[in-house]
Amino acid sequence: MDPIRNPYAPGAGQRPPELAGRDEQLAAFEVVLERVAKGRPERSLVLTGLRGVGKTVLLNALRGAAVRKGWGTGKLEARPGQGLRRPLSSALHQAVRELGHRDEDSVDHVLGVIKSFAHRDAGAAAKLKDQWSPGIDAPAVRGRADSGDIEIDLVELFTDLGGLAADVGKGIGIFIDEMQDLGPDDISALCAACHELSQSGLPVIVVGAGLPHLPAVLSASKSYSERLFRYQRIDRLSREAADRALEAPAADEDAAYAADALAAMYDATGGYPYFIQAYGKAVWDLAPRSPITAADVAVAAPEAESELAVGFFGSRYERATPGERDYLMAMAEVAAAQDEAEGDAVLSADVAANLGKKPQSLSPARDSLLKKGLVYSGERGRIAFTVPHFGRYLRERG
Predict the structure, then answer these.
(1) How far apart are the first and last CA of the chain?
(2) 351-390 burial by CB neighbour count: b if 16+ within 10 A, else e?
(3) Residue 139's pLDDT band (boundaries 50, 70, 90)?
(4) What distance in Å separates the CA atoms of residue 172 and residue 153, rounded to the nearest whole number?
(5) Could you report the per-residue pLDDT of 330-365, keeping only the tens digit for each?
(6) DSSP characters for 66-98?
(7) How far apart are CA 305 and CA 274, in angstroms?
(8) Burial level of 19, CB count in 10 A (0-12/13-18/19+)?
(9) In the 8-state DSSP scheme, what is residue 313?
(10) Cis peptide before 41 (omega within 30 of 0)
(11) How many CA atoms are closer than 13 Å to the CA of 260, on its beta-carbon side?
(12) CA angle 244-245-246, nearest 5°?
C-alpha cells in the first residue's frame, strides 16, 4: 500500500481522520452552546479517561464547535507546579480577540482586567524584568481581579468576561487540558468561579479534560462540584465505532478491510483510539494490497507494538526511578493475578505484599508516580495505571 496515502495519524492530541464514537458528546455540546448563548442555565463540562482515549482530540473538537458558533475561546494545558494566572490570561486574551466585540472601550476594559489578573502573579513589588507581559496594549485596571486572592480575582474576571460576551449574544469557552494538574488553590478558585457563573447565567463555560480521578480532585476542593459540572467518561470505542475509525479513512483512499482484519484489529487495539491509529498506520504501510486481511494485521502487529513500546509506553517508563519501576511491575503482576471483574485497579496493600514491604514504606514511590501521572487513585486504597495496556507492556518487558 502507498505509504504516502496512509490516512492514519497516531499522535498526541492529533485529530484522527475519522472522529468515530464521539457523536453523542458533540451533539450534546451543540445544545450547551445554544443554551448558554441564550442565557439558559447550563453546567460546565469535564471529560475524564485514561491516556490514549482521545480526550484532547475531543476537547479540541468541542472548541472547534464553539468557534463555529462565533464564540470566543481559549485553551491551556495545566502543568504540575505552574500557577493558573499566566496560562489562563493568555487563553482569555485570545478568547476576547475571537469574540469580535466592536466597542473598543468595553474590550479595553476587559483586556485591562485580564492584564491586572496576570500581573498579580508576580507580586506588587516585582521588578519589571520579573513581570510577565501578556501582550495586551490596554492599561491594567486597578481594583479588579488583582486582590491576590485567586478565588476573588477569578470570579471578578469571569464576571467581566461574561458581560462582554453577553453584549454580543455569544459566549466564551475556556478549555483546560490535564486539568487534574492544577494546584489545589487554583482548582478551588475555578470551582467557585463556575459556581458564580451558574448562578448569574453569564455566558462563560469551562470545559476541562483530565485523568479518571479528576472528579475526586474537584470534589475534594468544593463539595458542590459534583453538581457544578457535567461529567463525561471518555472510554475506548465500541466495535462498531472502531471499525468506522479504520474503514472510513481507508475508503477515502480507495482501500478496504476484510471482515477478519477488522476483528483482528479490535482484538489487538482493545478499541483504544490511539492504538487504532498506531496499528492502522503500521498495517497500511506493510499490507501489499487492498483489501487488508487478518494476515496483514499479524505481519504488522510487531511493528505497531515496537512503535508503541518506544513512543507510548517506553517514554513513560523511562520517567520512573528504579524504585518506582519496581512498584509499577508489582502493580502489573497483581493486576494479572486478580479477577477480570475487579478491573485494572489494584489494592496498594497487595502491591506492598508483592514486594515484601510495608505499605507505608512505599508511600514515597506511590506519591511520586501519582505526581508524574503514571498512576492514579480512583478510590481510597486502590491504584491503577493511567495508560491502557501498560501492565501488559511491563509484563512482556520483564
Answers:
(1) 35
(2) bbebbeeebeebeebbebbbeebbbbbbeeebbbbbbbbb
(3) confident
(4) 18
(5) 999 999 988 765 567 899 999 999 999 999 999 999
(6) HHHTT-EEEEEE--TT--SHHHHHHHHHHHHHH
(7) 12
(8) buried
(9) I
(10) no
(11) 6
(12) 90
CA dist 390 and 380 (Å) reads 21
pLDDT digits (tens, 9 = 90+) for 57-84: 999 999 999 999 999 999 999 998 899 9
At 338, the amino acid letter reads Q
List residues bridging with 48 in a β-sheet.
Answer: 210, 233
Q: Is 210 helix (H, G, I), strand (E, B) or coil?
A: strand
What DSSP designation does 310 have?
Answer: I
Q: Quote the pTM value.
A: 0.90
| Cα–Cα distance, 171 to 72 (Å, whole number) | 6
CA distances from 3 to 8, 21, 253, 275 (A): 10, 26, 11, 18
| Percent share of the chain, pLDDT over 90 | 77
CATH 1.10.10.10 fits 322-397, yes or no: yes
Give the C-alpha distances (Å, rounded to integers) separating 220 from 15, 59, 234, 367.
33, 24, 22, 17
| 69 within 8 A of 202, measured Cβ to Cβ | no
Q: What is the spatial distance between Cα 131 and Cα 118, in angstroms, rounded to a whole number?
A: 9
CA distances from 45 to 96, 128, 324 (A): 21, 38, 34
Spatial separation of the C-alpha atoms in residues 206 and 393, rounded to whole Å: 35
Domain 23-233 matching CATH 1.10.10: the answer reads no
Residues ≥6 apart with Cβ < 8 Å to 344: 335, 384, 385, 391
For residue 9, what pLDDT is reported?
Answer: 85
Which grid coordinates are listed for 362? 512505599
Cell, residue 315? 517514554
- The type of residue at 359 is P
For residue 134 the three cell numbers come to 501578556
